[in-house]
Every structure is written in structure tokens, then in C-alpha cells.
Amino acid sequence: MFLVKRPALLLCLFLLSGGLSTASANPPGHALATAHPAATEAGLEILNAGGNAFDAAIAVSAVLGIVEPYSSGIGGGGFFLLHDSAQNHTTMLDARERAPLAAHRDLYLDADGNVDRDRALNGPLAAGIPGIAAAWGHLAEHYAQLPLARSLKSAIHHARDGVPLNPKLQRAMAARAETFLRYPGSSVFVLDSPNPPPDTRVIQDGLASTMALLAEKGAQAFYRGPLAETLVAEVRDAGGIWSLEDLEQYRVVEREPITIHWRDAEIVTAALPSATGVILAQVFNMLGEDWLDENRGDVRIHRLIEALRRAYLERAEHLGDPDHVDVPVEQLISADYARELMADFDPERATSSQNLYTAEPEAGNTTHFSILDRDGNWVSATLSINGLFGSGFIAPGTGILLNNEMDDFSAKPGSPNLYGLVGSEANAIAPGKRMLSSMAPTAVHRANTLALLGTPGGSRITTMVMQGILQFLQGADAKSLVSSPRLHHQALPDKVFIEPDTVVDQERLEAKGHVFEVAEPWGNMQVVVWDTHEARLDAASDPRGLGSAKIEMLNIND
Asked: For 455, which DSSP code?
């Protein structure tokens, strides 16, 4: 169940200037970083059982959907950046959700023409057609070495045995309790008491049975047959608009990633329908290759903020699903276009973003993992169900928690979504269309070093990935990449959000007209680094989250 969209000449990253040399040895072992220790262990188990990075990606993503159900799962979608070492082939696997065929531009507008956010965020009407099961099937058929059943084994165990109720999971369940109570199938996430006993486990028997079905019948069982029929019936009974045709028509798509050359680095990241690749290309062009050479921090940050402001406004104006909208990507990421965007840049004054609304960006409920195997295959993947626990709706009889990714469309031009992002007609709702995203699994090549990185964070993903890239290019190790304080600006609202420990010359920047707001720490970056010259692996998981990173060195003769 897939489509292939890539040029005749495949992108050969390791042969390009700035890439890793094909003469270098394979990695001395495995390295992976995920958002939860159980997922890291599942991935490592698969790698040690003879699987490759693609088998491990299936196992990790499946377990993450069980142990952090508020962030991702089989009812959602995502992007997988893949490198097949034997074929010297890098591609982006687009498993983004699609709008149901019955969807239309004004789906979430009330009688007064305003967006009804409850309908856009809660319940099955908010859900796009999921892509994760199709991605598992595609990976298992075209890239992996083990049967799908083997890769799903750990997730099925965790669903049946139950997930220990940690504080983060408990807070998330409490935050969505009102929505869960609307839908009987979602009772698995309703706590009987505000103070549950310490040995409480969240058991997901329905989801375990669904995943066991996929293990036996294959990923296509999600989109055809009894499970699909149950999904459609339950969605429609609860007010949704899915059809069997929606599920039967769903396909994952292989797309050519966005490749950016900046200074001596090559950055490979997600293409549309992720907006981040285009934004990163624009921002790096607007910064210029001498940006890191500037001695004054306030001068660098001022230019970075102004570049981000312009790129996020470009996002709202031009970007959407490339299968439905003609997006002039080559023009948008060109150096000439960047010069036009910065034509009104004033090194002494901040530009004013038109303040169309007052909503502030929120932390995204998404996940990321990075995996490198001993053969040099790698996966950098970012997956999501959008908001906290997605739509809050579990289809009875399936255990499948559905996403609320339909809110990532522009329900009404100029009206902000959950993350404070505005959009235009390019990202308007249309039947079968993929909604714009910020998810950005990324690989950075510099001399003899490769870094795999990504993070959840909604509209802040772009700025986190950019800062991670910049830190890597300045010599930071994996631990520094995931833990360094962050800043964010997305044009609207016209504020610079900073974490409490972020070091900036705030006084000088405020004198230029920038407005700062200190926010709670955000993001959950997962990083793997391979130094081919030193035959060294490095990996780290963001201390802001619950994740873990592991490296396992292997005997070269094994």
C-alpha cells in the first residue's frame, strides 16, 4: 500500500560533497534514542535478533504508541527518513494522515462562519485516515529483514501486560478526562481515582488484539476486512465521516527529502507535506554562511529571529500537500528568494509581524526516535496523533485511539490552529488531502560525522531542529544537542519564547524591538551521532522527557 515519488536518479547522500565517505567502515555497533526506555529496549532487542534499523523502527514506533499513547500510535501518522546503506538510497516515507473523502473546506465552521474548535479537536470528526499501519507494512515488505509479527511482539506484550502509570501519563489522562468520558471506548484511559495506587497499570487489551491481528494478517488488515469495517461503523456512529473507501485508498508515499547545503554541511530533512524542510532551507539562506562567524550574540540572534519571522509567514502563505497544491518549492528555497525576503531587514530594528491573533504556541504531543544499525542503515522518524491523546476517541472493539490531525489544516484562512499557526487556501481542507505538518526527522552530514535528530513540539519543532543543527555544526555532542536551552519565534504571536536557562542578550534585543516571554521547557529531542573517522557512536535522549538512548558495541567478527 504505497506510492513512490522520487526522481530517476536517487539521492546518494554519501557520495555528495560534505557527506560521509563510502570508504568508511560500518558503525562499530548499534545506537538508538527514543522517547521511552521500553521502546529503546524493544528496538535494541530487534537489532540483536538479526533485524536492521527498519525492523527496529517498526518495533520502536509500535511500543511508543502503547507506552506514551498521548503522543503517537497506530491511529496516527508520521514521517520516516530512511537510509538503506546497501542501496545507498535515502528517502522520506510519508505516512501522514489524509482527510476523509467526505471532508470539505468548511467542515468545522459553525453557522456564523467561525471555527468550532471542539469539533476540530475532539471526537472522530477530528480524525484523518491513519498511516502508521501502512508504514509498518511498507517497511516490512521493502526494507526490513524480520517478519512483521516479530517486530510487533514487544508492543503486543506491553499492551496486554499494561503500562505502569507514571506521573506524566497520569497528568495527561487527567487533562483529557472530560473528552474520554464522552466515548465509552475511551474508558481505558479514565482513572477510577485521582490518587490511584502506585502499582496501577494501564492495560490496553483491545489494542493488543488489533496488533495481534496485524501480526497475523499483515498491515493491510487495518485497511480492509473486519477491522476496517468496525472502525468505519464506530467512527460514523460517533459522528465521524470515514468510509471503507477512505481506508482502502490510503497509501504511504516515498518522497525525495529536502537537501540543504550550508557551509561545510549537508542537511537532509522532511519534504512537503512537512513545512519544516522548506522553512529550514529559507532560514539558512537568509542567515548566510557567515552567520556563525559573527562575534556578537545579539547580532546573530536578531538575524535568526527575523529570518524565522519571514519563513513562518511564508509557511502560512504558500505551503500545503504537494499532491493537491502547486507549491513552487525550488523557488521558495532558492538563495535569490531568500535575498528578496530579507530585502527589508534592518540590523538595528525588529520587523513587526501583523498581530492577527493572541493564541500562543503549545507543546506538541508527538514523538521522535533515531536509530543507526551496524550496517549503516538508519532511520530518523517523527510520529504524531497531534494533540494530547489525539481526538480522545477510541473506536470500540479495536482499542485504536484516533488522531485529531484534521486541525492541522487551515479550517479558516487566518484562524490559528492548536499550535497558534495560521494558514491559507494552500492548506485548506479537501477530500483525500494530507494536512501540513511541522514534523522534521533530520540527518546532518559534516566531514566524517553523521547526526540523526528530531523532536516533538508542534510549531516549535522547526526551531528546535534548527538549533540542534547549529549546535552540531559548532561541535556539540549528543548530550548537549538534546539538553541545550531553546528559543522560538513563529511570526505570530510576535514574541520570542525562551526557556528559563536560555542565554541571550535580552536587553540589547529588546532595544531593537523584540518582545520576550519565558516559557516552560519544551521538546523531547532524540539524537544519534556516528563519527566514522574515530569509529565512535554517541546518543542521547532529551532530559525534558522520559526517554533513553543506548549504544551497543559489537564484535566486528560477529
From this structure: -
